[in-house]
Design brief:
The chain is mainly β. The protein has no helices and 28 strands. The protein has one domain: Methylamine Dehydrogenase, Chain H (7 Propeller). The relative contact order is 0.13.
Length: about 350
C-alpha cells in the first residue's frame, strides 16, 4: 500500500484547525490534505497509541493545558472522545506506553501521568513538579519540562527540563513517578528533545539554547546517565541565532537528525556503530522558516519538515545508505505546523 496517513499539529492564532489529516504517497512523496479537526486549539504535539486505535494530542494553553483523545479506528476520520487537564500550562510533548501517557508541561515545569486503560481518557493520576532555574534568565527563570523519553524496557522516564538545565530520571511505578537520578548540564544549554538508540544504552539530546547535541550513556539497571560527547548542531561558520527543536534517530540506528530553527536546517550526524558516538556529515537547508518538527516516513525513505513560521510542509527524499537528504518539489500548504505524526511509526 502506497498511502500513509499522518496527522499534523498546528498552532491556531487565526482560528485555523488544530489538527490536519494528511495522506502521503510513499512511492512519489506527494501530500494531500483529507480532513481537519478543530476540537483542540494550539495542538502542539501528537502521538498515536501503541494499538493504533487512538490519537493523543495536547492543547498548549498557557494557563490550563489539556490532553485530548481521538478514536482513529477509521484513521481518515478521527472522532473526538474527550479531554482532561494536564495539571499545568503550555503542554508540549507526550510519551506513551501501551497503558500510560506522560505529558511535559513547559510553562509550569511539571510532568503529568495518565492511564490509558478505558474507552475514555481519565484524569491524571499523578504529577511531578520541577524547581529551579538555569543560566539564561530570559528563558530559564523557572523550570520548563520540555519532553520525555521512556527507556526501552519502559521502567524509566527521562525528562529534559529546558528551564533548569537538567535531565531528570524517574522510575515508572504503577501509581507514581520516583526520581532516581538527575544530571546537570552546562548553564544555558536548555535541554529540549531526546531519543534513545535501539539497544537502550545510548541517549541523544538536543539542547535548544546553545545548539548542541549530546551523546550520553544510559545505565539500564539504575537509570544513571553519563555525558560522553557534545557537538554543535550548526556548521562552524554559522553566525545566525538558532535553536534546536526535534531530534530523531533512523530505524537502523545509523543516522541522527536534528532541526535548527533560525539556521533553518536539518543537521545530519552519522552514528558510530561500535561506540555510538556522533560525527556531523551535513546541514541541509529546509527551505522554510523555523523547522519546529520533522518526521521520517515509516519506510525511512522520506523526511517531512513542518515549518512553524512559514506556510508549507516540505518533503525530502532520504538516501538510506548515506543518510543524506534531497529536497523534492513536493509540498503542502499548512499554516503554523508544529508537529508531524505518522499513523504507522
Amino acid at each position: 500500500m502506497n498511502q500513509e496517513i499522518l496527522y499534523i499539529g498546528c498552532y491556531t492564532p487565526e482560528g485555523n484547525a488544530g489538527i490536519k489529516v494528511v495522506e502521503f504517497n510513499n512511492s512519489n512523496g506527494q501530500l494531500t490534505e483529507i480532513n481537519e479537526l478543530s476540537d483542540l486549539p494550539d495542538t502542539s504535539f501528537l502521538s498515536v497509541s501503541k494499538d493504533k486505535n487512538y490519537l493523543l494530542a495536547v492543547s498548549e494553553h498557557e494557563l490550563a493545558g489539556e490532553l485530548g483523545c481521538f478514536d482513529i479506528k477509521d484513521p481518515r476520520v478521527p472522532h473526538f472522545i474527550n479531554k482532561q487537564s494536564t495539571l499545568g500550562g503550555s503542554p508540549c510533548h507526550i510519551s506513551l506506553t501501551a497503558k500510560k501517557a506522560f505529558v511535559s508541561n513547559y510553562g509550569t515545569g511539571n510532568v503529568s501521568a495518565f492511564s490509558l486503560t478505558g474507552q475514555q481518557l481519565l484524569p491524571a493520576y499523578t504529577e511531578v513538579q520541577h524547581q529551579g532555574q538555569g543560566g539564561n534568565l530570559d528563558r530559564q527563570a523557572s523550570a520548563h519540562a520540555h519532553a520525555s523519553q521512556l527507556s526501552i524496557d519502559e521502567q524509566f522516564l527521562v525528562v529534559a527540563d529546558l528551564g533548569i538545565d537538567a535531565l531528570k530520571v524517574y522510575r515508572v511505578n504503577e501509581s507514581e513517578l520516583n526520581l532516581v537520578f538527575s544530571l546537570s548540564l552546562p548553564a544555558g544549554a536548555g535541554p529540549r528533545h531526546l531519543t534513545f538508540n535501539h539497544s537502550g544504552d545510548k541517549l541523544y539530546l538536543g539542547n535548544e539554547l546553545n545548539s548542541e547535541v549530546c551523546d550520553l550513556d544510559f545505565n539500564q539497571q539504575n537509570g544513571e546517565l553519563t555525558l560522553v560527547q557534545t557537538l554543535s548542531s550548526l556548521p562552524s561558520a554559522n553566525k545566525i541565532e538558532s535553536y534546536i527543536a526535534e531530534v530523531t534517530l533512523s530505524k537502523d540506528g545509523r543516522y541522527l537528525y536534528v532541526s535548527n530553527r533560525g539556521h533553518d536546517s536539518i543537521a545530519i550526524f552519522e552514528v558510530d556503530q561500535n561506540n555510538g558516538e556522533l560525527n556531523a556529515i551535513d546541514f541541509t537547508k529546509t527551505g522554510g522558516l523555523f523547522p519546529r518538527h520533522f518526521a521520517l516516513s515509516p519506510d525511512q525513505n522520506w523526511l517531512l519538515v513542518a515549518h512553524q513560521n512559514s506556510d508549507y510542509l516540505f518533503v525530502f527524499k532520504r538516501d538510506s545508505c548515506t543518510g543524506l537528504l534531497t529536497k523534492t518539489g513536493n509540498q503542502l500548504a499548512i499554516k503554523h505546523a508544529v508537529c508531524i505524526c505518522f499513523l504507522e511509526g
